[in-house]
Every structure is written in C-alpha cells, then in structure tokens.
UniProtKB/TrEMBL annotation:
It comes from Cytobacillus spartinae. InterPro entries: Inositol_monoP_metal-BS, Inositol_monophosphatase-like, Inositol_monophosphatase_CS. This is inositol-phosphate phosphatase. Keywords: Hydrolase, Magnesium, Metal-binding. The keyword Ribosomal protein does not apply.
C-alpha cells in the first residue's frame, strides 16, 4: 500500500473541499432536517461528501468509503482500506455561525487507523496524524500528552449530558463537572478531539457519536499518547454508535475509576 500517496491525496482533497466550502458562504444554503428538527444537513454537506467520493473512486477504486450522508458504501466490516468521512462535522455551527465546523477523515486498513485528518476550515487549521509518525497542526509536530489533575482539567462536554434525560443519570457527570477546572462545548466532536490532541482541552466526553464523528480524532489523539474508550472503559466500535471518552493518559484512568465506572452508559 502506498500510504505516502494516499496521505498526499487526502491532504490535497481536504484543502480543496475546504476552499469550496469557503466559497459557498455567499450562496443561499439549502437546509433540511434529518432525524429531528435540530438534526440539520445542507446541500454543502452532501456536495462535500460527493466530492470526496468521486476523487477516491477515481484514484483508489478498490478503497471503500463510509460517509455520514450515505453516498458511500454500506459496510458491515472494515476489511481493506476504508475512508470514514464526515464532510461537515458541526453542521449546526456551519448553519448558524459559519465557523467552528470541520471536515473529518479517518483512513483505516483492516480496522486499524492509519491516517487521521481534521480540517477546521475557517481557521485554516489542519490536524493531521499518520500512525507511528506523529501528529501535526499545520505541519508543526504536536507534543506528547501527559496527565493532568482533575482539579486542573478543562474538559469538552455538551451541557445536554448534565440535564435530566431518559438515557442517563446526569448526577455522575455533574459531579465531574463540579470537580474540574472548567468545561467547554464547541459543537463539533472532531474539533473537540483535535483540541484534546493539541492540548487545548484535557478531555472530551460524549454519550453518543457515530464512526464518522470520531474516526479521525481517535487516530490523532492516540498518536500523541492520549487514550480513547467508551464511558465504560471499553474499546470503541468503529462501525456503530458509541459513548466516547478521550483524554490525556493518567487522567483517563482516574476519571473512569472515580466517576464513570458506576454509570449505566
Ligand atoms: C455532530 C457534532 C456535534 C455532536 C453530535 C454530532 P454533525 O455532528 O459533532 O458536536 O454533539 O453528536 O452528531 O451532525 O454536525 O456532523
Ligand atoms: Ca449530521
Ligand atoms: Ca459529525
Ligand atoms: Ca456531519
């Protein structure tokens, strides 16, 4: 497998897709809803996914594609080379703010993450990791992560998960929120994972994400020594929805043991 060629192509295409998105800002967005009134998708999400699919099919016809908007392949397994793509992660931000969204691409071989790319289009920040070769922000190497005490941690967490809801007991996460230094919510799982990889956040916790939300982020975070698991501490399943807890090492063990272990996630 020519990973250098795959990497070069992925970087070129993600920048080109970002330019197209930037150029779309003057045009009127066509917005639709999906599973509920707050689950948005636009013509630009769809066009971006189709852009990647046509590029990949042309250059790497034997690679498979799993994309959020469903224009790729239907996959029950991760054999061969699979591109897991979220064309716009943070569509609500894209629609409401025109910022704080990202393109996320994770490239896997037989289920093993090889290349992760997260492109924060408006800030022109490209996070990029190649398994075994390090992680970079706009080509500058990212430092290895080390632990942080709970009392000094700033964690990414959506406030939904500390309100009463039918899925979980919110008091468990509320006690973590009380003990950490602060919480942040950026509205894009990919950006929040890229922030953990670059040390801007110490952890990111969420109850439900799909493979395209975390495929790239987990490669990035693990490449700098971070840890990824479900909230139960189990391995992430890359073909299904999961709860996700990614963080600096050390901190991950402490939070699992002292806070999350008792939850029915
Ligand atoms: C969403 C964002 C959001 C997260 C949601 C995701 P989308 O992805 O990552 O931050 O809380 O669970 O579905 O739909 O904007 O690609
Ligand atoms: Ca979506
Ligand atoms: Ca997403
Ligand atoms: Ca999306």
């Amino acid at each position: 497998m020519n990973w250098e060629e795959i990497d070069k192509s992925a970087k070129l295409w993600i920048k080109e897709a970002g330019d197209r998105i930037n150029n779309s800002f003057e045009k009127t967005l066509h917005i639709e809803t999906k599973s509920n009134a707050n689950d948005l998708v636009t013509d630009i999400d769809k066009a971006t996914e189709k852009f990647f699919i046509s590029k990949i099919n042309e250059k790497f016809p034997d690679h498979k594609i799993l994309g959020e908007e469903g224009f790729g392949d239907e996959l029950n397994e991760l054999t061969g080379v699979v591109w897991i793509i979220d064309p716009i992660d943070g569509t609500m931000n894209f629609v409401h703010q025109k910022r704080n969204f990202a393109i996320s691409i994770g490239i896997y071989e037989n289920g093993v993450g090889k290349i992760g790319l997260i492109y924060d289009v408006v800030h022109d920040e490209l996070y990029h990791a190649i398994k075994g070769e390090g992680a970079f922000l706009n080509e500058r190497p990212l430092r290895k992560l080390s632990s942080v005490p709970v009392s000094e941690a700033v964690i990414g967490l959506n406030s939904t998960w500390v309100t009463a809801n039918r899925r979980i007991d919110p008091t468990i996460l509320a006690s973590l929120v009380r003990d950490v230094r602060g919480t942040r919510s950026y509205g894009s799982a990919a950006i929040e994972m890229a922030y953990v990889a670059s040390g801007r956040l110490d952890a990111y916790i969420t109850l439900r994400l799909s493979p395209w939300d975390f495929a790239a982020g987990i490669i990035l975070v693990e490449e700098v020594g971070g840890v990824a698991s479900t909230l139960k501490g189990e391995p992430i399943d890359f073909l299904n929805q999961n709860s996700v807890f990614i963080s600096k090492p050390g901190f991950h063990d402490v939070v699992l043991k002292e806070y999350l272990r008792d939850g029915k996630w």
